[in-house]
Amino acid sequence: YTTPFNAKCMAANIVDCLRGTTDAPLSDCVLGASETCRLLNQHVKSEELNEVLNILVRFEIDEANCADAKELARLTTCIIRLCSAKEELGHTAFDYGTDLNDHIHSYCDIVKKTHPKVVQNALKDFEVVRGICDFFIKEQSKFVVEVLADGIRTLCQYSDSIPSFLVETPLLMNVVSRLENCPLENLSSYHTSLFTLIRAVLASENPPPIDVIQYLNKNLSPRLWLLTSNGYMDAISTLVMIHRWRIDGIGEEGVVQALKQGPNANIGSRLTESYIRDPSPYKFELLDGIFEDKDLVETIFYSNDIPVLLHICCDHLLNEEDVDLKKSILRFFITAGRNGFFDDQTILAINRCDVGDSLKEEAWKALIHKDTKHIA
């Protein structure tokens, strides 16, 4: 009695064996398997080996039955069991936190190393993230909360559907409530992990509910501006993500309004520094909102900082390839120009930029208007 040779099954078993033995990323395991078979094929004349090699060269992962999928399913069962115990026993289930942390760490390690199709299959019913989210909301230990926050952030990073699911849960409000009394300097890893989690969830393709946006604006934005003035640069990234979901008609509760409540000149220099790196359309939308108020700009920026900021924006306009980014910079220049914040380099950059639509012309007109007095 013999088992028929199955090259596809053999290829999958080799990859799974390498994955379990080496803990290398799945893509490296596939590459290692194919290169090994290629080398052996030079010395062993075998139709079966050649068939396995051909499958490995065009390897397609079985997202439901590979070793990573099975291990994620096992960890899912463990995580849900621990989360259910927390639900039943409440805060007396504190001892479950360490075990849960270990399982989440293992789960996220696989998520980082496996194929995206495996991740999407494992997370498609939101069972794991729902359990972790519920556990997070009830947990009191800062150590456990920090690990949970990092785990949720990882799931958000590797699955676009997770942030869209989480914005509809009480998670964001719970995180903000934990941050309301955070120190204004020397933040711990616990606090920074929570801020990072907020940004990960707000990266959702769907907007948060209105009450969540209002809660963020009222209870978090003012503190973020204070943190910005004290040099915590990631606060700006969080403000940018909150401002992204601003709602027309409630501007009095928005990120810019929170800045107006406690402006100081340190904030302008921090903003200037933050715009040197990692430009994005959302960052320039926030800057646009700030520059709509001339008095606010003159309060938070030292006079020498404004030309520096404008020149940074000019560099991004001319050197970045993202068309949406270029358009957001042009919109910012329109707003800034109408309030007299531009110079000759700004005009030159607009002339040289390669965005060929009416937005460029509108920016040009805003800067050369006969009633506009520029800063240089």
What would you note in describing this structure?
- With 376 residues, this protein is mainly alpha-helical.
- Among the domains are: 7-57; 263-376.
- Helix content is 71%, strand content 0%.
- The chain contains 22 helices and no strands.
- The chain has helices at 7-22, 26-41, 47-57, 67-89, 96-113, 116-123, 127-138, 142-158, 161-166, 171-179, 189-202, 210-219, 221-229, 234-244, 255-261, 265-274, 281-291, 294-300, 305-319, 323-338, 344-352, 358-368.
- It is flat.
- It comes from Pristionchus fissidentatus.
- This is 26S proteasome non-ATPase regulatory subunit 5.
Defining key terms:
376 residues, mainly alpha, 22 helices, 71% helix, 0% strand, flat, 26S proteasome non-ATPase regulatory subunit 5
What's the structural blueprint in terms of helices and strands?
Blueprint: H1 7-22, H2 26-41, H3 47-57, H4 67-89, H5 96-113, H6 116-123, H7 127-138, H8 142-158, H9 161-166, H10 171-179, H11 189-202, H12 210-219, H13 221-229, H14 234-244, H15 255-261, H16 265-274, H17 281-291, H18 294-300, H19 305-319, H20 323-338, H21 344-352, H22 358-368
